[in-house]
Every structure is written in C-alpha cells, then in structure tokens.
Specification:
The protein is globular, with a radius of gyration of 17 Å. It is mostly helical. Strand 1 (about 45-50) and strand 2 form a beta hairpin. The longest helix has 20 residues, at about 1-20. About 40% of the residues lie in helices and about 10% in strands. It contains seven helices and four strands, in the order H-H-E-E-H-H-H-E-E-H-H.
Amino acid sequence: MYKHFFKRVIDFCIAFVVLGVLLVPLFVIILWLHFANKGAGAFFMQERPGKNGKIFKVIKFKTMTDERDANGNLLPDAQRLTKVGRFVRSTSIDELPQLINVLKGDMALIGPRPLLPQYLPLYSKEQARRHEVRPGITGWAQVNGRNAISWTKKFELDVWYVDHCSFLFDLKIVFMTIKKVFVREGISSATSATMEYFTGNN
C-alpha cells in the first residue's frame, strides 16, 4: 500500500512544503549561478527515463559553463565545472529543482536516480527493473557510494531498493542522505569529475 499509494502522497506534500520554505534561498542561488555560469543560465534540463521507461525532463541547477574549444566542442566536465558549481554539486543543492519533478509525478523523493535515455537498451533484464518505480532525488545507491561505485554495484543497489521499498527504508535513506551531504562523499568517480558513461559492461 505504501509503495503504490502513500509514498506518492507523502512525496507531494513534502515537496510542496520544502519548495515554499526554500523559495527565497532558491532565488538567491538562481542569481548566483546565472553569473557564475557566464550567461549559460541557472537551470539544466535533460530528458531522462522515469517509471516504466517513460521519458520526462529532469530539472537541475546548472553547475557548468557552456565553454567550448576551438572546434566548437564542449570542454571536459572538469574544466567547465565552476567553483560555485562545485559547491552546489558537493552539497547536493543542484538536486533541489527536482522537487518540481516530484510535484509533477515524474519523480519521487527516494528511488533509483534517473539516468540517460541512451542507457535503456544497454541494461540487462535485471538492471532494467530499476524502472519499476519512480526515479528519486536520492536513493539507496546514492547513499552507498554515489558516483564512486561501479555501475554494476549501483544497479544492484537500485534493484534491491525496488524489492525492499518501505516507509522505514525510505526514512533511513533520508537520514543517510543528510549525513552524506555534510560529509560530501562519492561526488566524483575515480576517473571523472562526475561519473563516467555507462557502456553496458561496467
């Protein structure tokens, strides 16, 4: 009952209240990022697969500039990530606009992180089960390594969450997320400023 009804009701109410309380601080962050990103804007929107693989546009704060090399190609993530963006990302503030996605029903507060649409055909049948629930702003894989763990481990944790979703488990993830935000662990992978791309064999 929680997984199929009460979870959605609780998510909507919490997202609505938090957005109302943080309205002024969020406006300040928007202005801060607008100038730090050198005119690239404060928001980043990208198509992601949600529950049952349905595509939606995820909303995040933009933490990088759109600077390009002489050939017009975007510079590497590490070079485009601003100091302000690094702080916003390390404190997970960049995820806050996704509360709008929660209100819309695209996402949940807790669940597997929404990844890129091009990964869909690369999943094994078991890995694809991560889409049996709404993707979350934070999740079991996020509090157990975030970008610092392998894709294989991340998907194992995602599917484990799908099979064990409950109110108490979500509450546990919330408290672990708060701890991770202060410790700032797992923000980068071992080879990238964010997370390397999934190729189907990681």
